[in-house]
Amino acid sequence: MKKTFLFIKIKSLIIISPEKSLLKKAKDALLLIKNVDSKEYIKIFSRLNIVFITNKNGFSNEFFMPEKIWFVNKSVIKNNDLKWLASLIIHEAFHATQFKNGKYVLPFGEKLERPAIDLQEKFLKRIKDLSSKKQLESEFKRKYWKEIEDDELSYSYFRNLLRLFETKKLKLMKIKTGL
Predict the structure, then answer these.
(1) Average pLDDT over residues 19-34
(2) pTM for this structure?
(3) Using CA atoms in the order 124, 51, 145, 74, what is the torsion angle rounded to 10 degrees?
(4) What does the pLDDT read at residue 108?
(5) Which of 94, 103, 51 is closest to 76 using CA atoms?
(6) How far apart are alpha carbons 121 and 123 in whole angstroms?
(7) What burial class does residue 76 get, using C-beta atoms within 10 Å of its C-beta: 0-12 exposed, 13-18 middle, 19+ buried?
């Protein structure tokens, strides 16, 4: 039996998740962005088409271009606070701008991540969340994303979900946006 994924649509952005509570948290993070930085909020909708929260634990996530789909494991959503999640959405969406400008190239590294992290830090400063900013700086210095890159299982899982989504082989159920 296929796993059913739930989804909501906010403007042009589709958020897919295995759990209603994760949809709500992602929606709340978008509302936080809207309330803190309306210009960045508007940009989200041209940069991202889909936020796909998987039913897999782990801290990996991956942004796919040109599809403009951000795959993220449910632990990333569950285990981080709303401010951090909002800043991460901004960070990941920014990768679409890098791709559009020809700067989204492999291998991943500081040239790709630093501008996205700078934008993420700017948002965290606006909401005066210095603890998250310090966490972000220390994680980047430790190159935590290296651990994420090494998570080959999540990356193959993301690619499989993308293939299933594109071939309409996923079971999706729309949820009313009144979460």
Answers:
(1) 96
(2) 0.86
(3) 100
(4) 57
(5) 51
(6) 5
(7) buried
In a domain, 98, yes or no: yes
- State the Cα–Cα distance between residues 156 and 154, nearest whole angstrom: 6
3-state secondary structure of 50: strand
Note whether residue 121 is domain-resident. Answer: yes
Q: How far apart are CA 57 and CA 176, in angstroms?
A: 26
Lowest model confidence (mean pLDDT) among 18-27, 39-48, 113-122, 166-175? 113-122
Region at 110 (left for phi over 0; alpha for psi -120 to 50; beta for the rest)? alpha
Span 4-31, average pLDDT: 96
Q: What is the pLDDT of residue 1?
A: 45
Domains of the chain: total: 1
* Range of the structural domain that residue 137 is part of: 4-174
Provide the H-helix boundaries in the chain.
20-36, 38-47, 74-78, 82-100, 110-126, 130-141, 144-149, 152-166
φ/ψ of residue 89, rounded to 5: -60, -45
User: Residue 99: inside a domain, yes or no?
Assistant: yes
The pLDDT of residue 96 is above 90: no
What is the side-by-side order of every strand in the sheet holding 13-17? 61-64, 69-72, 50-53, 13-17, 4-10, 171-174
Tell me, yes or no, whether 179 lies in a domain. no
Closest C-alpha to 12, from 55, 70, 54, 51: 51
What DSSP state is assigned to residue 15? E
Q: Check residue 59 and give its pLDDT.
A: 76
